[in-house]
Amino acid sequence: MARKNRDEPDSWDVAAPEPVICPLCERVIPDDQQDEHHLVPKSKGGKKTVCLHRICHDQIHAIFTDAQLAKKFSTIEAILEDPAVQTFVAWVKSKPPGFSDSAKESRQSSGRGRGRKP
């Protein structure tokens, strides 16, 4: 039985995939925690998306209504200027990349915006 040659050229070009970085918290996003966020909500005609941690995405929608996202918070930079988001980001940055928790309710009252049901 022949031994496999570990120096075979076809295995040299296999590069590790680039890690996906969350533009909100700047941590690496594990594959099972990646969520696409529409910068302008689909309900308001948005098409462009960015990849976020699921927890970061959930927090954005816990803080802002779709109307607020469409009108004032349609960029990551604008979202990051909000004090509630800044507080969240400061907290979540200390967590490991795969950390998962439910979003903390903020400005939105129950029944407004895009809430996820428990």
From TrEMBL:
UniProt KW Hydrolase keyword: yes
One GO MF term attached to the UniProt entry: endonuclease activity
Swiss-Prot/TrEMBL keywords: Endonuclease, Hydrolase, Nuclease
Residue ranges, annotated region (Disordered): 94-118
PANTHER family, per the entry: HNH DOMAIN-CONTAINING PROTEIN, TUDOR DOMAIN-CONTAINING PROTEIN
Record-given protein name: HNH endonuclease
Organism: Neorhizobium alkalisoli
